[in-house]
Amino acid sequence: MSVWKHWEPIMRHTPRNVTQKLIASHLVSGDMTPGEAVGLKIDQTLTQDATGTMVMLELEAMGLERVKTEISAQYVDHNLIQEDNKNPDDHRFLQTAAQRLGVWFSRPGNGVSHPTHQQRFGKPGKTLLGSDSHTPAAGSLGMLAIGAGGIDVAMAMAGEPFYTRMPEVWGVRLDGRLPDWISAKDVILEMLRRHGVSGGVGRIIEYYGPGLEQLSAMDRHVIANMGAELGATTSVFPSDAAVKAFLCAEGRGDDWQELLPDDGCRYDCREEIDLSHLEPLIAKPSSPANVVPVREIAGEPLSQAYIGSSANPGYRDFAVAAAMLEGRTVDDDVSLEINPTSRSILETLTRDGHLFSLLDAGARLHQAGCNGCIGMGQAPANEVNSLRTVPRNFPGRSGTREDRVFLCSPETATASALNGVITDPRTLDMPYPRIEEPSDPIVNTRTLIPPLDEEKARKIHLIKGPNIESLPDFEPLETRLTLPVLVKAGDDVSTDEIMPAGGEVLPYRSNIPKIAEFAFRGVMEGYAAQARKTGDHIVIGGNNYGQGSSREHAAIAPRYLGLRIVLARSFARIHEQNLINFGVLPLTFVDASDYDTLEIGSEVAFENLRQALEASNEIGARAGDKTLRLEHRLTPRQIEILFSGGLIAWMREHRAA
Amino acid sequence: MSVWKHWEPIMRHTPRNVTQKLIASHLVSGDMTPGEAVGLKIDQTLTQDATGTMVMLELEAMGLERVKTEISAQYVDHNLIQEDNKNPDDHRFLQTAAQRLGVWFSRPGNGVSHPTHQQRFGKPGKTLLGSDSHTPAAGSLGMLAIGAGGIDVAMAMAGEPFYTRMPEVWGVRLDGRLPDWISAKDVILEMLRRHGVSGGVGRIIEYYGPGLEQLSAMDRHVIANMGAELGATTSVFPSDAAVKAFLCAEGRGDDWQELLPDDGCRYDCREEIDLSHLEPLIAKPSSPANVVPVREIAGEPLSQAYIGSSANPGYRDFAVAAAMLEGRTVDDDVSLEINPTSRSILETLTRDGHLFSLLDAGARLHQAGCNGCIGMGQAPANEVNSLRTVPRNFPGRSGTREDRVFLCSPETATASALNGVITDPRTLDMPYPRIEEPSDPIVNTRTLIPPLDEEKARKIHLIKGPNIESLPDFEPLETRLTLPVLVKAGDDVSTDEIMPAGGEVLPYRSNIPKIAEFAFRGVMEGYAAQARKTGDHIVIGGNNYGQGSSREHAAIAPRYLGLRIVLARSFARIHEQNLINFGVLPLTFVDASDYDTLEIGSEVAFENLRQALEASNEIGARAGDKTLRLEHRLTPRQIEILFSGGLIAWMREHRAA
């Protein structure tokens, strides 16, 4: 709060929007000019099981005794299918690690991280850093909530600030009222229709205006969650009466505080949506931005409809489906999948009779979790249409290579499941069942385990199954190096190609030596074997190297196998950061055509590397008789990290000092 | 019914037990002396998805137009996890195949085959053949219900009798009343404690006596289901007032008929159990016969408790757990898995508030199906104890190689989940919540699709995903053959070693060319590649060749790769039948030591093979300069089958004639 006080006098003079208030109150370094580097104090963290085991191993490697945040919560929601011991072993490891470090532990079945975090811990005015790209959903309550790589979250848990560049603030004014059969999902699909998957890059989206009044905190969650699909850093809503009503219903009225934009505040750019003009929208395969009105493709057959995920997590989203299905039957050729958000929401739906209606109509009920949204079960059949309320429909994400996944509202998914063809819900012959979030939801915390006190926590022993390996130590970068090129990648190579996910690979997420076997599988055959033979080496990349998922395994696994330097035409931001975090030096060509002069087997030599990096943004290297001109954007802190052997080693030195 | 009339006069004179009445009324060949071959008319069939795709492909290969049974039902319950398109593609194939052939189709989520079949189709006095080893569960209603290989069920669907050897009838008299906290599961565990996993081989177990009065039809299902674990051909209960009450509650009172043992009837062997003397029992890892009283191991920690499966499928089994958990919390270190039996039972539990109690206490709710019982999800962590109400705890069946699975009643599993240690439920400080099966259960048939009429059925086109291959045609056995030995196996080689199951292999269950790649993986490396190079060949086996699972892929896949003859010291019964069904000749050594004279690469020559088989049970063959003396037990019909190229080809000829 000392930081907040520091900024208060300035706030009195300059009208601020909600985003600026949140950033100003957490700024520990830099200034708030868009594009400038800023350091932010982090109040809360969120980790889930797919990224959390690595975070816990990183914290173990750093030697952290206890988290320094106000609240850190570890959720188990992504990988709930247990086909062998690896997954339940990970769950046990996470439970003991959470207890050891003073972290809340949300057991498997307790719920999906984002809505559960909103219900139990969401607090206006706070910052949240999460190792999940949909962390911004908490913006629904007037929080600044950002997704990041695992080790960035680990650093925040250790009390370090989060460093990023100050985004622009994009003010989106909502006017009017949503017509019958149109709901929050259609609002964010309209944003995607207008601006595509990179429309929000370098921006924070802040919603305001009279249209907010009709949107509950959970409706706002839908919109903030899928802000990630616009490429935005995060989305922010004010903390107003709707947020107060939500927190009061959850028994947490004391955690509410008002947080509104000041009169006369400014936005870096602006947008307006009249809710009364929206119609049911749907994103066709295979991009969230491939949006058209449902009516344009009405009548196409479907084989699956899917309700749930963090993109439509509210009681309302299930209850509206239940009310539409009551006494009716799902089409014989459609599998209707119900994926409850959390134990508490499932109990409330059960109490209120909605679960009965869903079951009675023929829905398949799955356990509470992320499930099919991230390809963990419920894959559709080959080349048939699947309508889902989830946030993403990237090709193959469902688990089926030739999938055809559409994104839509629960109203559209349910109407289509009833008719057996894609259906604009406005054409159904029934009154719109307008559902409000309940004023008396069940609040069940029996499977949300609080942190132990410090004395008890110190006695906890981490339980690691045979598949869980502590993080390997990495040596610091040397200042004199001659390394061979082992991989030459083209343009737009994604982290999916550098380090695949999916059912075959993900079970090894806690085991770097094992998962390393799959590295660069999408780029070349036999990389791991070759790297083991060669030792330290270089990878050459084209433009936009490392785009896509933030998974840090795409940096750790190659580093484990000896990757020390990547020379590329350009880097995707998060992967570049992940490389530095694990001690791999990212450099770009000053002359892009130098890319063509290097081949697998070429040798590149560096002299006085540290001194050169510290002295200038441009350094030289020798490849045969040619001198390469190379560029870097490293801060002095990042150079320190590289020559410490990565962020973990740096953190250990730092803490020892 | 004509068959029944034929036997009626005899029945008037000779008092019969229920089993004898069922067999007599369906006998089409042979006589009822134990050990003699008998042919039985089959009224109903049951197939599930793990075995059903092969059955449907076999029926397609036979050219069957429409099933000839009174009722055939195809369930989808085993493999509900959809990690990619293969599984949902199989579900769609089964749905179209069922519609094409006049078969009831139970959609994914509708329920586990055995209890669902009992509720919707079970009928006293009828025979049921199912391609699942727990088919005997339907004995609970006074049916004769037998498990068999897929093609035997396919033959029954085509109207052919089922051929087997007449078993002994084992009369088990039940006296007394079950004390509080003791339930049906403890009765069958007591049988396993006394007699082990082969105590029932060659027998049908028939229960009678005053102790039956207390056991509902679903309690009897528990006992009949796990008769399979005793190795029994099936288990049989009378059709009495409890069966009438069950059918009336399901809205099927008209399907009831009384079926009781005659006064003075005889059993081939006898057993008595006084229910009032039973205590809570538990089968320790890793055999269903490893039974001890729960009190002997009370206090051991556990990590998982599991309620559900066809071995404890009743409303009561879940409601008793719910009543025990109401207002309490599952231990923080135990994952309590709830696997509902069927849509109807889940709805009834929801209506009656029991589902709410389970959720509220912290249970994880899964979709209705077999799930973790057959290793499809819910695998326990490594080397921790898992208490389950399922029928089997063979090593690794849960999916975890080093698993520690215990079998027990819902009462024992729930008590242990509450305490976090293995607990005799009698030691809990609460009154026993005695639950009756409901008199007004929900009956929901919205996801049970009835057969189409013949005209509509003929228009149905089978939808086969890219992983579904029609069955290959196999050539008839030739009468003059010289074949090399390609595999030499030791004693007790199981079908798991000939054709492994599990998550890597099972998805290819509908694709013989693909699954053949895994053949003999447990015996030797590189069989498939070697067989493709060699062509037709011989396999040498030791004693008890082909024991274990009935899966017919263990015969089809090697036959596909050129296996024509197996020479073994002795065969396991079902695998021997499966070999013949797919055109592979099984022969045993007259002189067991001849096994030692043959090696991989030895050539064996047969002359006038058909003539020799027809002429005598002993035939000769040449291996180098040695003459081998070989034996067979083939019936003339089986010889015909072999020289037709297997049962499918034989059936096609037969139907054409």
Short structural summary:
Two copies of one chain form a homodimer. By secondary structure, chain A is α/β, with parallel strands linked by helices.
List the helices and strands and how they pair.
Two copies of one chain form a homodimer.
Chain A: H1 2-13, H2 18-24, E1 27-29, E2 37-40, E3 44-47, H3 49-62, E4 71-75, H4 86-101, E5 104-106, H5 113-120, E6 127-130, E7 144-147, H6 150-157, E8 162-165, E9 168-175, H7 184-195, E10 203-208, H8 217-225, E11 234-236, H9 241-249, E12 269-274, E13 281-283, E14 291-293, E15 304-308, H10 315-325, E16 335-339, H11 343-351, H12 354-361, E17 364-365, E18 385-388, E19 404-407, H13 410-419, E20 448-449, H14 454-458, E21 481-488, H15 495-498, H16 512-515, H17 527-534, E22 537-541, H18 553-560, E23 563-568, H19 573-581, E24 585-589, E25 603-606, H20 609-615, E26 618-623, E27 626-631, H21 636-642, H22 647-656
Parallel strand pairs in A: 3-4, 3-6, 4-5, 6-7, 9-10, 9-12, 10-11, 15-16, 15-18, 16-17, 18-19, 21-22, 22-23, 23-24
Antiparallel strand pairs in A: 1-2, 2-8, 5-20, 13-14, 21-25, 24-27, 25-26, 26-27
Structure description:
- Two copies of one chain form a homodimer.
- By secondary structure, chain A is α/β, with parallel strands linked by helices.
- Among the domains of chain A are: 281-427, Aconitase, domain 3 (2-Layer Sandwich); 481-656, Alpha-Beta Barrel (Aconitase, domain 4), CATH 3.20.19.10.
- Chain A is 30% helix and 19% strand.
- The first copy, chain A, contains 22 helices and 27 strands.
- In chain A, the strands form six sheets. Chain A has a seven-stranded mixed barrel with strand order 21-22-23-24-27-26-25, surrounded by four helices.
- In chain A, helix 10 packs across helix 12.
- The model of chain A is unreliable at 1-9 (pLDDT under 50).
- At the A-B interface, helix 4, helix 11, helix 12 and strand 17 of A face helix 4, helix 11, helix 12 and strand 17 of B.
